[in-house]
Design a protein that fits this description.
The protein is about 45% helix and about 15% strand. By secondary structure, the protein is an alpha/beta fold. The chain has 3 domains: about 100 residues, NAD(P)-binding Rossmann-like Domain (Rossmann fold, 3-Layer(aba) Sandwich); about 35 residues, Double Stranded RNA Binding Domain; about 60 residues. The strands form 2 sheets. It has a 4-stranded parallel sheet with strand order 2-1-3-4, sandwiched between helices. A two-stranded antiparallel sheet has the order 5-6. A hairpin with a 2-residue loop joins strand 5 and strand 6. About 20% of the residues are buried.
Length: about 220
């Protein structure tokens, strides 16, 4: 068995569709946070950006203006997660303290000890998401490693993942029994298909090709 390699973080693909998230800040770091939040599609995103000094990207992504955060305690009520990207260290510390008092998850940009979680360098290709994390130690290095991974992946890697998802959905339509034996057979068949076809081939599948692959299930292949 592989020996554990403690790194201090549990890497998860976090589903945020039921979460309300507050982002405080309006600069380049806030823009990056906002982009990733929009990709994750939480239930609600509220951005508290300064009245002046908001970068062009944040302004472009916002559909309406938001007030500057003065009363921290009043602003964070009603949220599940809070992100700060501020140049104001005392205000960031006040946000962190208020979040901890309420047992809210919080990330204070560039202050690892005041983060319940980190933002890694993320590669996105459709349904495919790959995160490189250095646990807050070297974000610039994480970005370099992510760029190397991007070059190594085929251009249609995201499409390949989408097609595997369509194959799984099609297989459930053909055989939707929920007993243990059938579930195991479906899993084993999908493993064989995923291993047999290259990423490039999976990415090139169209409706006709997917249906042909699914016919293999009916033939016991």
């Amino acid at each position: 068995f592989e020996a554990p390699q403690p790194s201090g973080s549990l890497l998860l693909a976090w589903q945020t569709k039921k979460l309300s998230i507050l982002l405080i800040g309006g600069g380049a770091v806030a823009a990056s946070r906002l982009y990733h939040l929009l990709c994750a599609k939480p239930k609600r995103i509220v951005v508290l950006a300064p009245e002046d000094g908001t970068c062009d990207e944040v302004s472009w992504r916002l559909t309406s203006s938001h007030p500057e955060a003065h009363n921290v305690d009043a602003e964070i009520d009603g949220f599940d997660m809070v992100l700060t990207a501020l140049d104001d260290a005392p205000l960031s510390r006040a946000v962190y303290t208020a979040c901890k008092d309420r047992r809210l998850l919080v990330n204070v940009a560039d202050v690892p000890p005041e983060c319940d979680f980190y933002f890694g360098s993320t590669l996105r290709r459709g349904a495919l998401s790959v995160m490189v994390s250095t646990n807050g130690k070297g974000p610039r290095v994480a970005a370099r490693l992510r760029r190397r991974l991007e070059k190594a992946l085929p251009d249609n890697a995201g499409r390949a993942i989408d097609n595997v998802g369509l194959l799984r959905a099609g297989l459930r339509k053909k055989e939707n029994a929920g007993d243990k034996e059938t579930i195991e057979r479906r899993m084993e068949w999908m493993i064989r298909v995923s291993d047999r076809w290259s990423l490039a081939q999976l990415g090139e599948m169209d409706d006709r090709m997917r249906e042909g692959v699914l016919e293999g299930w009916e033939r016991g292949e």
